[in-house]
Specification:
Layout: E1 6-10, H1 15-24, E2 29-31, H2 43-53, E3 57-60, H3 67-70, H4 80-99, E4 102-108, H5 132-147, E5 152-156, H6 170-179, E6 184-187, H7 197-210, E7 217-221, H8 229-239, E8 247-250, H9 252-256, H10 272-278, H11 286-300
Parallel strand pairs: 1-2, 1-3, 3-4, 4-5, 5-7, 6-8
Helix pairs in contact: 1-7, 2-4, 4-5, 6-8
The structure holds NADP nicotinamide-adenine-dinucleotide phosphate (NAP).
Length: 307
């Protein structure tokens, strides 16, 4: 892939998409129609757009991502969540296949039920989603690989960023609570592998190149080692010199009762397949991610002189 290769990004205004546009623009010819310019629910418009775009690869980040809100549509195959997460990827993969365009589609760790405590989930572990969001995302994955066997489906987990973004992630939520001196309930009996957003976006960059050269299929993008939400919150306190004792341990069962959508308990992804395909260094340990997160935070704070 070179600057001359065009990549169409769908969902470029979202959390992941906005960072993709920020990091890839210098390196690739990125074309990212806004929702207003291209409604991915309109199959004819998508086909016409891609036909005229000259794209070599499509990266699909358009989705319905509100896990709790999605439960209101549980079982509704006429609903927007199903349309965006299950039907759009299926149609998109058919269009890409017909046009001979490569496809990288994004999915989630929520396709698993989280009962696996001994080791992180690999790509060939059987999925069993609990939430409507997870179920619709799984159908989307399956349709992508059915209609376009050469496509890549990358599952990402809990992306977090120290750069400003309107929607809060776990790290940002903890930070706000630390700053207000509020306690934080951190689940201590759950294994997670959160990925720094920039690492995920660099990994996706490697995958858009790879998918043009070889079969990739399903691949996991996450931290290379695991933590717990409890340790995650305490590590944030440690790296910013905040009061780690504000973090109080809780159990997954107690946390789960407070949420409308059922969630996987052990939400951890094994990234050895990605490392074997793309090499070491792009995906990193949670400690390394957190160090960069703190640096991003520092860089995005206005300095006293500029206020
Ligand atoms: N964020 C996470 O924690 C997380 C975790 C695991 C996996 N993922 C997966 O990563 C991918 C990207 O997630 P994200 O957090 O970046 O999502 P997001 O912030 O919710 O963004 C979703 C994107 O989809 C676009 N979109 C929605 N409906 C559309 C339509 N009808 N036509 C065109 N565009 C439409 C939105 O545009 P408008 O806003 O303009 O409507 C937005 O750009 C998704 O596949 C998600 O399932 C995310």
């Amino acid at each position: 892939m070179s600057k001359l290769d065009r990549v169409v990004v769908l969902g470029g205004s979202g959390l992941v998409g906005s960072r993709v546009l920020g990091l890839w623009d210098a390196d690739l010819d990125v074309l990212a129609p806004t929702h207003a310019e291209l409604d991915v629910l309109d199959a004819d418009a998508v086909a016409a757009f891609l036909d005229q775009s000259g794209a070599r690869v499509v990266l699909n980040l358009a989705a319905s991502t509100q896990v709790d809100a999605a439960e209101a549509e549980r079982g509704d195959r006429q609903g927007l969540v199903y349309a965006l997460n299950a039907e759009v990827p299926g149609r998109l993969s058919r269009i890409c296949k017909q046009l001979d365009v490569h496809l990288v589609h994004i999915s989630t760790d929520y396709v698993f039920d989280g009962t696996q405590a001994e080791r992180a989930y690999r790509e060939d572990d059987p999925p069993h989603p609990l939430s409507w969001y997870g179920k619709t995302k799984l159908i989307g994955e399956q349709r992508v690989l059915q209609h376009h066997p050469g496509a890549c489906v990358a599952r990402i987990e809990m992306p977090f960023t120290g750069r400003p973004y309107p929607r809060s992630d776990f790290a940002r939520t903890c930070l706000r609570r630390f700053e207000r001196g509020e306690t934080i309930a951190g689940v201590a009996d759950q294994r997670i592998t959160p990925v720094l957003l920039d690492d995920a976006v660099r990994a996706l960059r490697a995958l858009v190149t790879l998918v043009t050269r070889r079969h990739v299929g399903l691949v996991h993008l996450a931290a290379t080692d695991w933590t717990t939400p409890y340790e995650y919150a305490r590590s944030i306190a440690d790296c910013l010199n905040l009061d780690r004792d504000l973090v109080r341990p809780t159990t997954f069962d107690a946390f789960a009762q407070t949420r409308p959508a059922p969630r996987p308990r052990h939400s951890w992804l094994d990234v050895s397949r990605f490392v074997a395909l793309c090499g070491q260094g792009i995906l990193r340990s949670f400690e390394q991610e957190l160090r960069d997160w703190a640096m991003q935070l520092h860089e995005s704070q206005p300095s006293p002189a500029s206020i």
